[in-house]
UniProtKB/TrEMBL annotation:
PANTHER family: 5-FORMYLTETRAHYDROFOLATE CYCLO-LIGASE, ATPASE INHIBITOR/5-FORMYLTETRAHYDROFOLATE CYCLO-LIGASE. Signal peptide: none annotated. It comes from the Bacteria. The gene is fthC. It comes from Furfurilactobacillus curtus. Belongs to the 5-formyltetrahydrofolate cyclo-ligase family. This is 5-formyltetrahydrofolate cyclo-ligase.
Amino acid sequence: MPTKAAVRKTVIQRLTALSPADKVNQTQQLISALVSHPWWQAATTIGMTMSTSIELDTRPLIAQALAAGKTVTVPRTLPKRQMAFVALGPGVTFEPSTFGVDEPIGGQEITAEDHDLIIVPGLGFADDGNRLGFGAGYYDRYLAHYAGHTISLALAVQRFHQVVWPLTPFDIKIEEIISMQEDHHG
Ligand SMILES: Nc1nc2c(c(=O)[nH]1)N(C=O)[C@@H](CNc1ccc(C(=O)N[C@@H](CCC(=O)O)C(=O)O)cc1)CN2
Ligand SMILES: Nc1ncnc2c1ncn2[C@@H]1O[C@H](COP(=O)(O)OP(=O)(O)OP(=O)(O)O)[C@@H](O)[C@H]1O
């Protein structure tokens, strides 16, 4: 079995090699599946992320949620690999972190229990719900104390039918992964 680091590298290479048009096309399909999901429709407060360029672009998703009147939160990283989610709105500004993510400055922190749904980022997603993140353990720590719904969106190159990386007791499965078929061609 390859190491987590090796699988991360493979997925990053595949994401980098995706054509922008193919990525946009897949992203639109995944977003349309997500916004018709009952957990999305019922959710008042949704945790998302400010995507980096290799990730699925979350901007259209954030825009749709705000247009539907939902509260959207995004993470701010804290010492000891903790995160706080901050509601988007007037008064929130952004500053890029060392990881390359725009992180909110100011704004109101929303607790884990006040979220109905968290859209969890990552590099690889297995059909059984297992997730390979960027390797810092932020979400595994956060989700350990979160009881609401979780969904991840997997582009074709991020989808795995089985877990091919080593699991640890800290790994928390995502409740539902919305995935593209790997035979997708843009
Ligand atoms: N768009 C997006 N935002 C996100 C995540 C994500 O996966 N995607 N995260 C998902 O977790 C959190 C940030 N994840 C991070 C993952 C790795 C490193 C990291 O390796 N940073 C330094 C090392 C710092 C250290 O060792 O303390 C580095 O870049 O070398 C930082 C943040 C929160 N925000
Ligand atoms: N709940 C936790 N408590 C303590 N340590 C943890 C916890 N979750 C993960 N870790 C540790 O954090 C490190 C990174 O974990 P892992 O490689 O699973 O991250 P990841 O899931 O890929 O990243 P992320 O969750 O940030 O997207 C590992 O050393 C792991 O043991």
